[in-house]
Amino acid sequence: QVQLVESGGGLVQPGGSLRLSCAASGRISRINATAWYRQAPGKQRELVASITSEGNTNYVDSVKGRFTISRDNAKNTVSLQMNSLKPDDTAVYYCHVHLHNGGYWTYYWGQGTQITVSS
Predict the structure, then answer these.
(1) Residue 116, SS3 per DSSP
(2) Long-range contacts made by residues 38-46, C-beta under 8 angstroms, separation at least 24?
(3) 61 by DSSP, 3-state: which?
(4) Cα-to-chain-centroid distance, residue 13
(5) End-to-end CA distance of the chain
(6) DSSP label at 89?
Protein backbone atom coordinates (compact mmCIF):
# COMPACT_ATOMS: atom_id res chain seq x y z
CA GLN A 1 0.00 0.00 0.00
CA VAL A 2 1.03 3.57 -0.66
CA GLN A 3 0.07 6.63 1.34
CA LEU A 4 0.36 10.30 0.50
CA VAL A 5 0.24 12.62 3.48
CA GLU A 6 -0.11 16.34 2.93
CA SER A 7 0.73 19.08 5.38
CA GLY A 8 1.05 22.84 5.53
CA GLY A 9 -2.42 24.13 4.76
CA GLY A 10 -4.23 26.86 6.63
CA LEU A 11 -5.46 30.43 6.68
CA VAL A 12 -3.26 33.23 5.41
CA GLN A 13 -3.76 36.89 4.60
CA PRO A 14 -3.46 38.18 1.04
CA GLY A 15 0.17 38.65 0.16
CA GLY A 16 1.28 36.00 2.60
CA SER A 17 3.10 32.72 2.05
CA LEU A 18 2.54 29.05 2.77
CA ARG A 19 4.44 25.90 2.01
CA LEU A 20 2.69 22.62 1.27
CA SER A 21 4.42 19.28 1.56
CA CYS A 22 3.39 15.81 0.45
CA ALA A 23 5.19 12.72 1.67
CA ALA A 24 4.78 9.37 -0.05
CA SER A 25 5.37 6.19 1.90
CA GLY A 26 4.82 2.49 1.53
CA ARG A 27 5.63 0.16 -1.30
CA ILE A 28 7.34 2.52 -3.76
CA SER A 29 9.88 1.47 -6.35
CA ARG A 30 10.09 4.67 -8.31
CA ILE A 31 8.29 8.01 -8.55
CA ASN A 32 7.79 9.60 -11.93
CA ALA A 33 5.97 12.91 -12.26
CA THR A 34 4.45 14.64 -9.25
CA ALA A 35 2.02 17.53 -9.21
CA TRP A 36 -0.25 19.76 -7.18
CA TYR A 37 -3.88 20.29 -8.12
CA ARG A 38 -6.48 22.51 -6.52
CA GLN A 39 -10.23 22.69 -6.45
CA ALA A 40 -12.15 25.75 -5.43
CA PRO A 41 -15.84 25.59 -4.45
CA GLY A 42 -18.01 25.19 -7.52
CA LYS A 43 -15.05 24.81 -9.85
CA GLN A 44 -13.30 21.93 -11.53
CA ARG A 45 -10.05 20.60 -10.19
CA GLU A 46 -7.14 22.24 -11.99
CA LEU A 47 -3.47 21.47 -12.35
CA VAL A 48 -1.41 24.06 -10.48
CA ALA A 49 2.14 22.83 -10.94
CA SER A 50 4.01 19.70 -11.93
CA ILE A 51 7.57 18.43 -11.80
CA THR A 52 9.12 15.48 -13.57
CA SER A 53 11.67 13.10 -12.12
CA GLU A 54 14.33 15.10 -13.98
CA GLY A 55 13.18 18.33 -12.35
CA ASN A 56 11.35 19.91 -15.25
CA THR A 57 8.53 22.11 -13.99
CA ASN A 58 5.28 23.45 -15.37
CA TYR A 59 2.84 25.96 -13.88
CA VAL A 60 -0.63 27.25 -14.61
CA ASP A 61 -0.38 30.85 -15.77
CA SER A 62 -2.16 32.24 -12.72
CA VAL A 63 0.60 31.10 -10.34
CA LYS A 64 3.71 31.66 -12.43
CA GLY A 65 6.25 33.73 -10.58
CA ARG A 66 4.49 33.16 -7.24
CA PHE A 67 4.53 29.39 -6.69
CA THR A 68 7.48 27.03 -6.81
CA ILE A 69 7.23 23.26 -6.94
CA SER A 70 10.12 21.09 -5.79
CA ARG A 71 10.79 17.51 -4.90
CA ASP A 72 13.21 15.47 -2.84
CA ASN A 73 13.66 12.14 -4.58
CA ALA A 74 15.55 10.63 -1.66
CA LYS A 75 12.71 11.37 0.75
CA ASN A 76 9.82 10.82 -1.70
CA THR A 77 8.43 14.27 -1.00
CA VAL A 78 7.05 17.03 -3.16
CA SER A 79 6.53 20.59 -1.96
CA LEU A 80 4.79 23.71 -3.15
CA GLN A 81 6.06 27.08 -1.96
CA MET A 82 3.30 29.64 -2.39
CA ASN A 83 4.12 33.34 -2.17
CA SER A 84 2.10 36.49 -2.75
CA LEU A 85 -1.08 34.56 -2.14
CA LYS A 86 -4.34 35.95 -3.42
CA PRO A 87 -7.97 35.26 -2.44
CA ASP A 88 -8.37 33.45 -5.78
CA ASP A 89 -5.84 30.89 -4.55
CA THR A 90 -8.34 29.70 -1.96
CA ALA A 91 -9.03 26.04 -2.62
CA VAL A 92 -8.37 22.51 -1.48
CA TYR A 93 -4.94 21.50 -2.71
CA TYR A 94 -4.12 17.90 -3.63
CA CYS A 95 -0.81 16.27 -4.40
CA HIS A 96 -0.78 13.77 -7.23
CA VAL A 97 1.94 11.22 -7.79
CA HIS A 98 2.71 8.81 -10.61
CA LEU A 99 4.68 5.95 -9.14
CA HIS A 100 5.66 2.33 -9.49
CA ASN A 101 4.53 0.26 -6.52
CA GLY A 102 6.71 -2.74 -7.23
CA GLY A 103 4.13 -4.25 -9.53
CA TYR A 104 2.91 -1.58 -11.91
CA TRP A 105 2.73 2.14 -12.58
CA THR A 106 -0.25 3.90 -11.07
CA TYR A 107 -1.45 7.25 -9.73
CA TYR A 108 -2.20 8.31 -6.19
CA TRP A 109 -3.91 11.36 -4.71
CA GLY A 110 -3.27 12.99 -1.37
CA GLN A 111 -6.16 13.58 1.00
CA GLY A 112 -6.31 17.31 0.25
CA THR A 113 -5.47 20.30 2.39
CA GLN A 114 -7.45 23.54 2.64
CA ILE A 115 -5.80 26.85 1.78
CA THR A 116 -7.83 29.94 2.61
CA VAL A 117 -6.53 33.37 1.63
CA SER A 118 -8.53 36.04 3.39
CA SER A 119 -8.10 39.19 5.43
Answers:
(1) strand
(2) 38/89, 38/91, 38/92, 38/93, 38/94, 38/115, 39/91, 39/92, 39/94, 40/88, 40/90, 40/91, 40/92, 43/91, 45/94
(3) helix
(4) 20
(5) 40
(6) G
Total Cβ atoms within 10 A of residue 22:
28
Residues in the chain: 119
- The pLDDT tens digits of the residues spanning 88-110 come to 999 999 999 999 999 999 999 99
Give CA–CA dist 47/42, Å, rounded. Answer: 16
The phi and psi torsions of 88 (rounded to 5 degrees) equal -70, -10
| Alpha-carbon gap, residue 98 to 74, rounded angstroms | 16
- For 2-30, write each residue's pLDDT tens digit: 999 999 999 999 999 999 999 999 999 99
